[in-house]
Amino acid sequence: GAVYNSNERQPHSVCLQGTRVELLQSLQAHLNDRNRKLLWVTGESGCGKSTIAHTLAEKLDRQGRLAATFFFSRKHAKRSNLDHVFVSLAYQLGLHHPRAQDIIVQAISNDPSLL
Predict the structure, then answer these.
(1) What are the entry keywords (predicted)?
(2) In the structure, what pLDDT confidence band is assigned to residue 79 with cuts at 50, 70 and 90?
(3) pTM for the whole structure
């Protein structure tokens, strides 16, 4: 449910063509900088964070550059707090990157409390 294109998140909103162009370009430039590994989108409730993040995730996924996403939701217990963030991100990373999967499995084997 936390993945950007999850059926649980349907229908999802995306930025309309021609809107928020400068912001999306700025975020894309941030992600193109190899020295930056993470993009964390914050803002007040209702300001469009999810729409912007979904639009960007969709674009990155089409480019084969999306590592993982987590969309919080007040309506779903598993997505309303931090309890499932890292497990979800680790799962997605493992799906897309076999080397990461091996490292994640080894880390969990060494310390099951990570789950």
Answers:
(1) Repeat
(2) confident
(3) 0.76
Residue 2 lies in a domain: no
Integer Cα distance of 6 and 60 in angstroms: 16
CA distance 57 to 40: 12
pLDDT greater at residue 70 or residue 75: 70
The CA–CA distances, whole Å, from 90 to 43, 51, 67, 77, 102 equal: 25, 23, 10, 19, 11
Residue 21 forms part of a structural domain: yes
Give the per-residue pLDDT at 1.
62
Asked if residues 49 and 42 have their Cβ atoms less than 8 Å apart, the reply is: yes
- Rg (alpha carbons) of the chain, rounded to whole number: 15
Q: How many residues does the chain have?
A: 115
